[in-house]
Amino acid sequence: MVKISGKSVFGGVSIGKLLFYQRKEKVIKRIHVDNVDDEWNRFQSAKNTAVSQLKGLYEKALNDVGEANAMIFEIHQMMLEDLDYLESIENIIRTQEVNAEYAVATTADNFAKMFAAMDDAYMQGRAADVKDVSERVLDILCGVSGGMKEMDEPCIIAADDLAPSETVQLDKSKVLGFATMYGSSNSHTAILARTMNIPAVIGLGEALRQEYDGKDAVIDGFTGTLYIEPDEETLKEMQEKRAKDLEQKALLETLKGKENVTKSGQKINVYANIGNVSDLGAVLKNDAGGIGLFRSEFLYLENTDFPTEEQQFSVYRQVAESMAGKKVIIRTLDIGADKQVDYFGLDKEENPALGYRAIRICLTRPEIFKTQLRALYRAAMFGNISIMFPMIISVKEVLKIKEIIAEVKAELKEEGIPYKEDVELGIMIETPAAVMVSRELAKEVDFFSVGTNDLTQYTLAIDRQNSKLDEFYDPHHPAVLSMIKMAAENAHAEGAWIGICGELGADLELTEEFLKMGLDELSVSPSMVLPLRKRIRECE
Ligand code: PEP
Ligand code: MG
């Protein structure tokens, strides 16, 4: 038996044969060409074929994994039309008088290196995309087709890493799990594994060898372990673990439709956090009472330019309508710090987490803020939308926000565009400053939602992005818990309600404590709604 440790991206146990993802090898040679015009045309025709293939993939992905995940194939199409990319290829063909394959491979390499060298994690991730689209063009130029062996039975897919186009082409009914050598928790393989609810382990490194192809394997997605040819004892242990997990999931199903109520009758709302419209299915499936945090910045992150009012309106309206009258709390854009978007043209900062982000951008660039507010107030006509503002530190900011809202409403009124007059307004409590002035803030808003991810970062002065500090990043720290308690007392003293939408809300060890603090709501990832309900119902 071989045991390999990696990083878990989705819990659960899968048992089956390991199947290595096969890519057809291509050897790219540098060949002199006499007619550079013909060569450039050959490239353009291959590029056009690639674009039409990507259109097909987009449609397939739309069906299989939803719009947000399918978007990557639109981005790939755009990459193939990118002027810098095309110019580089044309330039290599014409000045070096070489074949299109060589020009594409060289350009892909250069661009991938350039992306990989960028500071921003999102841009670094684009290195894989530029390679992926270029491989597609190269396949067409070389007349080979990449792909996967036919799967007769469901298998665990092993790979170095899987590109989005490769992942989406897999027959999902035959995928038991994913095991990859590389990749990050935000890679598309990881996202797909979560969307499909299948166990996955990434970052297994070189220990995951091609020679294991076809061998019996087990993924323990809870511990991030891959076993090859498990011995009898391990196999038995894993079978039991899997049975228990399935039993647990079935048990949770029985909690659907039940109240979030303690034994003594204390009730609390359990809502779900989402980043995309495609997460709505999971919200409904897990019976969340509402949406406690819609991270609207993902709309901006996925776009190559500012999303228009109409684009935003249609997304917010869709979310509000799908939730059919249940509360939908939409957070205005929280761009900056770890969430960078090129087209915002933000300067590089020494200390981005303490920098120009979230509400600070909105208050200094009101044209961006107003577009979002207009879309929100219009969409509020179609459901139960509340608006929440991130990174607040003062009453002054809230008053300024209200002034801008008044302007937006007056403009909509004048233009004769329907909007909702009274929308519930709340702020995120994620800075110690907001906690300290929470009594005053509570007078100005309807609700608070504690962003424990940032509140922990700013209270403990620990960068939440720095994995070296994991052992110090302690959201159970008494300082953090006292802050939550203080904010709760102050909210209630002024008649506002309070919830938690940071990761700590799903920490079942603290559920009882949160109930004691009198929190009104906990908003967690969709898959944590039912486990949290179970925990609440066990509390006295
Ligand atoms: C938080 O800070 O806890 C939060 C919910 O916001 P985000 O994680 O998006 O910063
Ligand atoms: Mg935050």
Strand order of the largest sheet: 1-8-7-3-4-5-6-2
| Distinct ligands, ions and cofactors found in the model | phosphoenolpyruvate, magnesium ion
The major beta sheet can be summarized as: 8 strands, mixed
- Which range does the strand content fall in? 5-15%
Structural class: alpha/beta
- The gyration radius over C-alpha positions equals 25 Å
The end-to-end distance, rounded to whole angstroms, is 46 Å
Strand tally is 16
Shape: globular
Mean pLDDT: 90
Structure, described:
It is a single chain. By secondary structure, this protein is an alpha/beta fold. Helix content is 47%, strand content 15%. The chain contains 19 helices and 16 strands. It has helices at residues 36-80, 83-96, 100-116, 121-142, 164-169, 188-196, 232-253, 280-285, 297-301, 309-322, 359-364, 366-379, 395-415, 432-436, 438-444, 452-460, 478-493, 511-517, 529-538; strands at residues 2-5, 7-10, 13-20, 155-159, 175-180, 200-202, 216-220, 225-228, 269-274, 290-295, 327-331, 384-389, 424-429, 447-450, 497-500, 521-524. Helix 10 packs parallel to helix 12. The chain binds phosphoenolpyruvate and magnesium ion. Residues 390, 430, 451, 453-454 line the site of magnesium ion.
Concise structural overview:
This protein has 540 residues and is an alpha/beta fold. Helices cover 47% and strands 15% of the residues. The chain contains 19 helices and 16 strands.
